[in-house]
Amino acid sequence: MLVGFEQNCGAAVRVASTPLEVPVSDRVAWTTSDASVVAVSPIGHVTVRGPGQARVSATFHGQAGSALFDSTRAQRDALSWVGDGITGQLKPGNSVSVGMDLAYSVVSAAAGTLTVRVTDQDGQIATSPERVVANRSSHLFVDVSFTIPRSSTRLCWSGSLVVGVATLTVPADALNCVTLTP
């Protein structure tokens, strides 16, 4: 895991003799073996602060579980696509929102900018506002709302990180496209 990255940890208890699990992340005692490497909040939100190893543990009614975190500093600017989300029905003429969960590292400058761009078969149709991100590693959900042009037959979206004069884009090919039906 890269320094600067954050995530939520989860804890659940299994109800005896059933497959049911009950989330208890907000009711467990969270601890870390080294807060200079990994900090953990009372509800299980983890922040990687420095390189090294640290164990995050959760205790609930005398039962404990833990996870070992290995962290390093990013060596270069990087961008990866963690997931996406769509609100609305992808049909020409409809208003929709398309977003991407982007994991990034900015190393070569004080800051960079993240955007999501949407295109159709004729070119660009929407771009999110630029989101300025600091020199660190983390992730951010970036989205854009727009109306799909009535002439659109194919919709694609991608995320970009601009750091100085360099632009990193994910996905790097046309894998994130859908064919639209009227």
The coarse overall form would be flat
Q: Determine the fraction of residues in helical runs and give it as a percent range.
A: under 10%
- The total number of structural domains is 2
Q: Structural class, from helix and strand content?
A: mainly beta
CATH homologous superfamily caption of the largest domain: Immunoglobulins
Radius of gyration: 20 Å
Number of helical segments with 4 or more residues:
0
Q: Give the class-level CATH name of the largest domain.
A: Mainly Beta
Query: What do the pLDDT scores average to?
Result: 91
**SSE string, helices as H and strands as E:** EEEEEEEEEEEEEEEEE
Write down the CATH topology of the largest domain.
Immunoglobulin-like
Low-confidence stretches: none
Strand content: over 45%
How would a crystallographer describe the biggest sheet? 6 strands, antiparallel
Instruction: Please tell me the CATH architecture of the largest domain by its name.
Output: Sandwich
